[in-house]
Amino acid sequence: MSLKLTRAELAQYIDHTLLATNATNEDVAELYREAREIGAYAVCVSPNMLPIGAAWVGLDPDSEPYEPAEGEPQVATVVGFPSGKHHSNLKAVEASRAVAEGAHEIDMVIDIGMLKAGHPELVEKDIATVRRAIPSPTILKVIIESAALTDAEIIQACEASVAAGADFVKTSTGFHAAGGATVEAVALMRKTVGPDIGVKASGGVRTYEDAMAMIEAGASRLGMSSGKKVLAEAPEA
Fold first, then answer.
1. Which residues are catalytic (predicted)?
2. Which of 34, 139, 217, 230 is least enclosed by beta carbons within 10 angstroms?
């Protein structure tokens, strides 16, 4: 491992994540407190935990969504999660509602079965439908489940994402039986999308060494539920 980032530097790569099915508002509130404490770039939670005014900062549920101050964690949520087997229009509605409720970033799941059936053009159409529903500056990340794909399919998924206007490609939901991020998949995704599109490694990033390996391979964001533990392993300076 040649790359070494400080605790503060690494924190800015992290989407501090809680997508457990049994998560409560109290759990999400603690996640947000931790994210602020560790300096994470964003938090990533389930869409029914929005708006953050209700779940995280004790505001009235009918109030306007809470807007983080400069330097506080951004808000990310998931769409079509975790299977991707949702109608494109429903994904678009889910994404649009999430943005209206305060999400700054949307992590959508593609239908990998559609890709494996040889229809990358339909995957592109699916992504484009969500993109139209949440125009810039909202960040759109596309989850491709790289561990379940061949190298050729990873390339197709990345190309479809870029063509549809995605800002990031993301390895995994963390829920697929095939597994999460690998260094090899991240490197291939980076090679395919080039330097101007983000690559998010998610699923199985549990140590400082894992994080450094993913960043060295080309990751520009890391999705993890163990961010606090990983940062404790990082050098302070």
1. 107 (proton donor/acceptor), 170 (schiff-base intermediate with acetaldehyde), 200 (proton donor/acceptor)
2. 34
Return the residue matching tokens 């597994």: 179
Report the predicted TM-score, pTM, of the whole model to 2 decimal places: 0.95
Report the alpha-carbon distance of residue 159 to residue 166 in Å, rounded: 10
Q: How many CA atoms lie within 13 A of 102 on its CB side?
A: 26
Q: How far apart are CA 168 and CA 190, in angstroms?
A: 10
Domains by residue range for the chain, with CATH: 7-232 (3.20.20.70)
DSSP single-letter state for residue 24: -
**Contact (CB, 8 A) for 42 and 16:** yes
Secondary structure (H, E, C), 181-212: CCHHHHHHHHHHHCCCCEEEEECCCCCHHHHH
Is 170 considered catalytic here? yes
**229 counts as catalytic:** no
Would you state the pLDDT for residue 41?
A: 97
Q: Are 47 and 94 in contact (CB under 8 A)?
A: yes
Give the separation between CA 55 and CA 53, rounded to whole angstroms: 6
DSSP class of 69: P
218 torsion bin: left (phi>0), alpha (psi -120 to 50), beta (else) = left
Task: Identify residue 234 by its one-letter amino acid code.
Answer: A
200 is catalytic: yes
Of the listed 15, 91, 107, 126, which one is catalytic? Answer: 107
